[in-house]
Amino acid sequence: MSKFMKSLVLVVVAVCAAAPSFAQRDLIEIMRSDLRTEKTAIVTQAMQLTEAQAELFWPVYREYENETIKLNDERIALIKEYAATYESMDEKTAKSLIDRSFKLQETRTKTLKKYVGKMSKAVDMKTAARWGQVEYALGSAIDLQIASELPLLK
Q1: Is residue 123 part of a domain?
Q2: CB–CB of 12/28 below 8 Å?
Q3: Is there a domain that residue 34 lies in?
Q4: What is the CA radius of gyration of the chain?
Q5: How many angstroms separate the most distant Cα atoms in the chain?
Q6: Domains in the chain: how many in total?
Q7: How far apart are CA 57 and CA 153, in angstroms?
Q8: Closest Cα to residue 11, out of 23, 81, 41?
């Protein structure tokens, strides 16, 4: 993960907790756009596709990215809720947040699995599997960075 990407993740977490709502939305959208651009550059470098593969790969990739935007919206909403309720966290809220977090992680995994299947139909299975590895590694790195920045419950 590049320094730029790490910095963006840190800023997103900080902004979610601190910025006023209007500015927060605008800044988060700018950062998410930059993060997607950086991620696309990493995927491009890792995949090393031929021209013919690229023509088939990128439309499926863009479809995947569009679907994951909704999941990332949910993730940001969870982080915001966690930040807003951190000091006054009760049992019910803690249960709701962790249950929704697990559900979101399951949905993210199912979505990746679905698109590896779609990708294998567009290109070959090895290329689709390589993309799945890259996508999983990037997601794991982002997850780790976010987790390291969020304080544990008291």
Answers
A1: yes
A2: yes
A3: yes
A4: 17
A5: 55
A6: 1
A7: 42
A8: 23
Contact 38, 138 (CB under 8 A): no
What is the spatial distance between Cα 10 and Cα 76, in angstroms, rounded to a whole number?
13
Percent of the chain with pLDDT over 70: 78
Q: Structure pTM?
A: 0.79
The position carrying tokens 């915001």 is 80
Is residue 154 domain-resident?
A: no
Identify whether the C-beta of residue 94 lies closer than 8 Å to the C-beta of residue 28.
Answer: no
pLDDT tens across 53-65, in order?
999 999 999 999 9
Distance CA 19, CA 83 (A): 12
Domain that holds residue 111: 3-149
1-23 tens-digit pLDDT: 455 445 445 545 554 444 444 44
Q: Would you say the C-alpha torsion 135, 46, 35, 119 has a positive or negative sign?
A: negative
Other Cβ atoms closer than 10 A to 12: 23
Could you tell me the two tokens for 116?
């590896």
> Does 86 map to a domain?
yes
What DSSP character marks residue 152? Answer: P
How far apart CA 76 and CA 70 sit, in angstroms, is: 10
DSSP 8-state assignment for residue 87? T
